[in-house]
Amino acid sequence: MNEYKYKFLKRYDKDSIEPFAINTIAQSFNERYAQYYSPKNTDNFDFISPDKQSALEVTLILPENERKEYEYEKALDKNGKANLHEIKGVKTDENNRILSYYGGSISEIKKAIVDSINRKNRKALKRLMNKKYSQVDLCLVIQDGALLDFNSFKYYFEEFYTLDFLFRNIFFITRDTFIRYSKSDDFVEYKRKIKNK
User: Fold this and answer.
1) Which class for 66: exposed (0-12), middle (13-18), buried (19 or more C-beta within 10 A)?
2) Which side of the chain, N or C, has fewer Cβ within a 10 Å radius?
């Protein structure tokens, strides 16, 4: 497998998403997050602060069609066979490599975000029964196709004002933006900085 194809197929793996998220938070918001580490206990949060008082959970938001496209590419690379019929609006080249496809709508991405926050909140409540942290944050890495900007969050995500969750900060990383939400500060946009390796 060539290096480009390897990176392409690994782009949504946990081992790629989590370091990307923590580095982007540290670079864009607060450098103290660079000191967080991944605990060995798999029944814990993705990252924990050195003093073990704060935790961070990271998750990926993919529109359903984007997920199907990714699964298709992985299956095609693994055994040379994959089903194109489930991918909406797909166009391929002569080797069945995807050239374009329907990425998803804002409403679909919005629903996936809200559902993910609710799901992660339920998991966090269970984890906090075993280990108490003074602060828990959530980071959503969103494959949005550049549909979302600060105003999308500020004016289109009215559900945030009624959602009940324990997270002190919710970070949103999209292709073009880095946004933090907290109940005390509302939505705040920061310059999105990515650590180059």
Assistant:
1) buried
2) C
